[in-house]
């Protein structure tokens, strides 16, 4: 039997166990091979670039995933966790965990190799790593990244959608205007699915000695909650200065995206229509949203009544603290793919820069209340009458850092996002509605965080009115 015949039989149980599989909890009906491109056809290991077509018992749309299938004559202990069975008498495994495979991938990008419909494309003048073994990083949820020393990192996209991935598109645009706020692009891997271009991977500068923004924020909240009598600005781990610098960085990125890709406008009615559709869909999936529908709708009504055109541009689309890195030289923004659950057409559509601002403000809430949940049960701090010192301090941290971020953003953007409070609050609510659905599906214990934020946001709107 051949790879095309045997491989699909091995994957229905293996795929859902992978952290990058986007349809967890959805029973897999079948796995088929949409395309298979032999990359290494002699020696050990053999290597094929495979695009899988996955169908589900609930008749939801087919999803496509990329798998680099390596095959070797005998099993290797260090690859046991990546092995999914035997194909044509050989041990078959996820080739990204094999340094021999990743060395070949890196050299292919450096040399600009083309194999059938797959193109390995180096960026002009890029300095690509040499002489270091590839190492899979274990931090990503939806993709897989391999680093070489402290110079290059390759993100391999797992779920494949037709069209150029916005992460690659926007990095190319930002490189063209000389941006220092993103890790420089070194190259890409591009292919074809059903006659349309697809992005299979992208190679970038590796941000050595960097710290994840989410981890830094959690540490700061933890330091505050552990103190008995100090205010947020008195605690050693105060994050406000970094939040302000981060706001400046986002303001610069937005200006660079406008320079590279231009601007446009959106009608308020168009925005509200999109939000209402998302809210209706979310309410069908999460009954806990039902009690908030009238109050959320009232906030959306306020935006509709503005009646003005809203400036639009290309934005990050899924901005939060986990999409930022603090290097010795400043902040970097990463992962411009947009919201994973959104269609590609929605992710590449120009939007208000306030969407990114709202995403970051939501992330400060997330950091504060995720840490609070480690100290107090969610059933306590989400209750309307609850008023503990811990909750007060979590609120203090979130508000202090939300304000600092907006201060920094205003310095570089030329306008304070808080001056558009009606629109900003609506974007925050739309993001929180999205989060409720995501958390209910993926991390149910986190769902109280966006639900509590929705209560605060609509209460704030009501008091303002």
How does this structure look, described?
The protein has helices at 3-14, 99-111, 166-176, 213-226, 240-261, 268-285, 293-306, 344-347, 354-375, 378-381, 389-413, 421-442, 448-464; strands at residues 28-40, 46-56, 63-72, 83-87, 90-94, 114-115, 118-122, 134-137, 143-148, 152-157, 159-160, 185-193, 196-205, 211-212, 263-267, 309-313, 324-327, 330-333. It is α+β, with helices and mostly antiparallel strands and 465 residues long. The chain folds into 3 domains: 3-95; 100-205; 211-315 and 350-464, Aminoglycoside 3'-phosphotransferase, Chain: A, domain 2 (Alpha-Beta Complex). It has a 7-stranded antiparallel beta sheet. Strands 1, 2, 3, 4, 5 and 11 form a 6-stranded antiparallel beta sheet that branches. Helix 3 packs across helix 5, helix 6 runs antiparallel to helix 7 (293-306) and helix 7 (293-306) runs antiparallel to helix 12 (421-442). It is globular. The N and C termini lie far apart (70 Å).
Q: Strand share of the residues?
A: 15-25%
Shape: globular
CATH superfamily name of the largest domain? Aminoglycoside phosphotransferase (APH), C-terminal lobe
Instruction: Give the averaged pLDDT, no decimals.
Output: 91
> Which second-level CATH architecture of the largest domain applies?
Alpha-Beta Complex
Mind summarizing the main beta sheet?
Answer: 7 strands, antiparallel
Q: How helical, in percent, are the residues? A: 40-55%
Q: What are the low-pLDDT stretches, counting only 5+ consecutive residues below 50?
A: none
| Number of continuous helical runs | 13
| Widest beta sheet: strand line-up | 6-7-12-13-10-9-8
Number of DSSP strand runs: 18
CATH class type of the largest domain: Alpha Beta
Distance from first to last alpha carbon: 70 Å
Q: Which value, in Å, is the CA radius of gyration?
A: 23 Å
Total domain units: 3
Instruction: Indicate the structural class.
Output: alpha+beta
CATH topology of the largest domain: Aminoglycoside 3'-phosphotransferase, Chain: A, domain 2
